[in-house]
Amino acid sequence: MTSTNTFKVLIVLTSHDQLGDTGLKTGFWSEEFAGPYYTLAEQGAEITLASPLGGRPPLDPKSELPEFQTEWTKRFDADDALQNKLSHTLKLSEVNAQDFDTGFKKFHVESLRSDLDFVFKKYGDIHPEFYKNVSKEEVAKRLERLKVEILMPLNRIEFMNKFSPILYHIVKDGHNYVNGPNEEFEKYLKNGGLLFPIAVQMKNHKIFCDSKNTAVPFGSEITKINDLPSSFVIDKILAGYNAENQEFAEATNSPWFSGSFWYAFGNMYSYNITYTSADGDEKNIRLGGLKQSAIDASRISKQSKENYSFRIVDGSNVGLITYNLCEDLENFRPFCEKVFSTLKNNGSTDLIIDIRNNPGGTTRLGEVLYEYITTGKISQFEKIETRISQEKKSEYVQSRRKYEKSFKWYHYLYYPIYVLSNKDRRQILMAKNGSTMIKRFSPEAPKQNPLLFRGNIYLLIGKKTYSAAAILASAFKHYGLGKLVGEETGQATTFTANTVELMLPQTKLVCSVSTSKLYMIGTNN
Fold it and tell me: Could you report the per-residue pLDDT of 244-294, keeping only the tens digit for each?
């Protein structure tokens, strides 16, 4: 079906026909041109072809070999109109890029350097351990080298790929990252853009097929993508993310691999994939891109989109809570009421709580859960050290509104009274920016609950158990509330978190930065 929305697209082809000094012929690859051309044309694009010299661009003769023929190339070979259009490409010097819709806005060098100054300073001001492993002087040197390397205007994706590997490798912190600019990604998809076509799992610096009904068998190791070693692809995709645990980083980012590949390597409409088959043979296949929905539908290792769910295990009286995200506090207590009422009415004596795929959220849900599984005094933390900043103060007020609904617009009318009337508010909102506030915790008994579960509890954990979920597991172990089953979590027992968002003034990229160092219960260092 052809779209009625017309948009203008420029496709630039090479005029170079010699492969270095080898004497071999080269040029554009037929399928890599035909795939995007026909995909965009079917979406209603008005397509202009250009090349540095104009006229007929050279075709790579290897792309005409039988093993590289696809439906795209067959259509291309039989399309007389397109062949004629190719013979009359415009000279690139005669083309104005501003006349087309698919390019992304570029920012001037000074604007980019200004954003670098801003984001490095803010991380230094806000993050409690930004200079722990790298001195302030060395960070300043890295910043200046980075600014010197910004020699030409860049779009937001190019800029993100330039600075994030430098900024986020100053300190290991999986809560810190820059959000990929979603507007550009959505524009690419809207204009018919396709993504790497196979759902995968990254593990131990390797890539494995996690798709059904694809030409690459499930479980096969993908060793190269477009001749790039998979280890290089993983390093590039995770370059701007420096979690405390590599396995956690790989597992958490695997569901977003296709989009992350696009952010890292740009537009591709076909992929030459090298993989190892079950019998150990190395095989190659060329595949076209797919829409994200098709990739998700093919994924075998799917994760529930529900934050939490409950069922009685088939053929037993064992309860199973699948707890995927520590969010939606408002509905968590009604969920627990229903779950523990069912367990009580059924006379269940065993409960499994599965947090293997839980990356965290707010620890407030853990406080609610403890009311249903213990009567003993409990605390999730030894202490929390918070670096005070204006951004932290603003986030504190917003979080009160989100979780406690205690801050209303009219509180601004008597803000000093609002601040002074509560100890925690008074400490954080009146503290000097740049200072550190230390909050120590004492175990407290949860509220008495008639639905208290007194049976056996098994907490399932894994590498993707992180942040608030790992805190839950640590307290569960410390107070002996049941048995831990699985792998070590992806989070250390002391770590930095409690993030605030920063928007860069020029590019409007949004970054996440930690404000606090958290000590789980039972730890001091």
Answer: 889 999 998 999 999 999 999 988 778 999 999 878 899 999 898 999 899
Q: How far is CA 497 from the centre of its chain?
A: 16
Distance CA 519, CA 309 (A): 29
Residues 6+ apart with CB under 8 A from 39: 192, 194, 269
The whole model's pTM is what? 0.79
Query: Do 7-99 and 308-520 share a fold?
Result: no
**Pair of tokens at residue 441:** 């915790």
How many residues are listed for the chain in this entry?
Answer: 525
Q: Give dist(CA 506, CA 72) in Å, integer.
A: 41
Superfamily for domain range 186-298: PDZ domain (2.30.42.10)
What is the C-alpha to C-alpha distance for residues 490 and 355, in angstroms, rounded to an integer? 12
Instruction: Give the position of tokens 């670096």.
Output: 387
DSSP 93: G
Q: How far apart are CA 62 and CA 64, in angstroms?
A: 5
7-99 fold: Rossmann fold (3.40.50)
The three state secondary structure string of 250-319 is HHHHHHHHHHHHHHHHCCCCEEEEEEECCCCCEEEEEEECECHHHHHHHECCCCCCCCEEEEECCCCCCE
Residue 437 pairs with which residues in a beta bridge? 386
Strand-strand pairing, 282-288 and 270-276: antiparallel
End-to-end CA distance of the chain: 61
| AA identity, residue 412 | Y
- 236: tokens are 């590039």
Helix (H) or strand (E) holding 76: helix 71-77
Q: Considering only CA atoms, which of 387, 377, 391, 356 is closest in space to residue 487?
A: 356
Q: Which CATH architecture has domain 308-520?
A: Alpha-Beta Complex (3.90)
C-alpha distances in Å from residue 247, one per residue of 202, 238, 243, 472, 493 = 8, 12, 9, 20, 17
Give me the residue spans of the domains in the chain. Answer: 7-99, 186-298, 308-520
Coil, strand or helix at 408: coil
Identity (one letter) of the amino acid at 356?
R
Task: Say how far apart CA 281 and CA 220 lie, in whole Å.
Answer: 11
In which residue are the tokens 């406080």 written? 367
| Tens-place pLDDT, residues 74-119 | 999 999 999 999 999 999 888 887 677 656 788 999 999 999 999 9
DSSP 409: G
